[in-house]
Amino acid sequence: MTTSETVRFPGASTRTLRGRPLLAWECPGEWLAVSSGSYGGGLGLRRWVLNATVPSGYDRPDPAEHIAEMAGELELEGPGTGLLTAVDVRHEVTAAESGVRASVTTGVGYPIWAAHDAADTSHLVRDHMPGTINAVCFLPVRLSESALVNLVATVAEAKAQALSEAGVPGTGTCTDATVLLCPPDGAPEPYGGPRSVLGAPLARVIHRAVTEGLRVTNPRHG
């Protein structure tokens, strides 16, 4: 496995658009990514990532177009992916271990259980809320596509563990989002589960970042 010292991770820059903060990462070239973001989701090569604060009660029907507008204002070029959250992204927590790095914004004003009672419709009024636990993660070596997908599950498991230990009544929020990026070249690591070479440290950094983020008293913007 290539050592992490040979890989230069992009750093997040904090910017402001229309009075609201956002985090922007610009990759050194195109990186392989898996994303559940409103814009640029799926598997593919990405050059940039945005995690942007929006108002509580955000109700634009076109979040992908909104993110594209922000990328245009920032003059970001090429394919990218973007996330939205009602959390002030300046409360972002970064954790790193063994060449793995995760940047997480955490807010649980509307926690839900993933397997809710089918008769309970209270979650439906919350589905429009922007994602409140967003994770942007960087891996130091190429991963197979199946390993990247597996790592998304690893992130979800680690997040749920942190929420459970903190006494949060839920496994997440309705629209949590995750982005994982790795170099596009090299022999791919085949596994991404929580006991794999990269999955284990990723689970730990996600757990630490969410745990620390939950300590913020009022994470929402303004």
TrEMBL record:
A GO term, aspect molecular function: hydrolase activity
Assigned keywords, A-Z: Hydrolase
Protein name per UniProt: Adenosylcobinamide amidohydrolase
Lineage of the species this protein comes from: Bacteria, Bacillati, Actinomycetota, Actinomycetes, Actinopolysporales
